[in-house]
Amino acid sequence: MSLLEIRPIAHPASREQVPHQHAQGQLFTVKSGVVSIEAGGGRWLMPTGCIGWVPPYEAHGAHMHGSMAGMSLYFTETWSRASMPAALKVVRLSPLLAALLDTLARAEPPAGPAREHYLAVFADDFTRQPAQTLFLPMPQEPRLLRMAAALLATPDDNTGLDGWAGRIGMARRTLTRRFQADTGWSLTQWRQQLRMLTAMERLAAGESVTAVALGLGYTSVSSFIALFRRYTGMTPRAYLAAGRD
């Protein structure tokens, strides 16, 4: 039996899950709310309509931002390693994936060879889906990691490259080159991604658009709304409405 357990998830308020690992592969969906996952040297954001995969023995923690609902499915290590991606992956919940999940989670799901067939189709479609870009890689160099951790704690910090180079005791050119090598992004790109992910988390937790914009260091609410729309394809209010559907 490849599928071991299906467990509904429902949390009425923000909740944090300590980092842990398990032998089973885990799929989890977000039907409402926002979840952020920390694993594999980075941070993933899962808004409504996403599904994530955590391979066996992958250390991971989660933070539910505000109320959320979803579902977790646990699979044997053998099936997980043979059929699913070897690394953590987050994708949009396609119509096919959603239909397969509904079938597997119904009161009288398919059993035996029929269920294995459903799972094979699910694994194939999940693997083919493009990974979501709601990911924030973390640098590995100790001084850069301290800088990134400080920015995670205070995303409104507008300290520039020269300021950070002085604070962590690293030449500006070295900081720029090493940060790009560690993360694949410039510090400016990384900081924008951090702020957008943080904005989604804070909006889901119930903060107003104005509070989020000013709390993230934007000079005006309108500039934040414009950037959020370019980044996500919708305004913050539309994003919130979509998360409640």
Automatic annotation (TrEMBL):
It comes from Cupriavidus basilensis. Residues 142-242 form the HTH araC/xylS-type domain. Keywords: Activator, DNA-binding, Transcription, Transcription regulation. SMART domains: HTH_ARAC. InterPro entries: AraC-bd, Homeodomain-like_sf, HTH_AraC, HTH_AraC-typ_CS, RmlC_Cupin_sf, Tscrpt_reg_AraC-type_HTH. Gene3D superfamilies: Homeodomain-like (1.10.10.60). This is AraC family transcriptional regulator. Pfam families: AraC_binding, HTH_18.
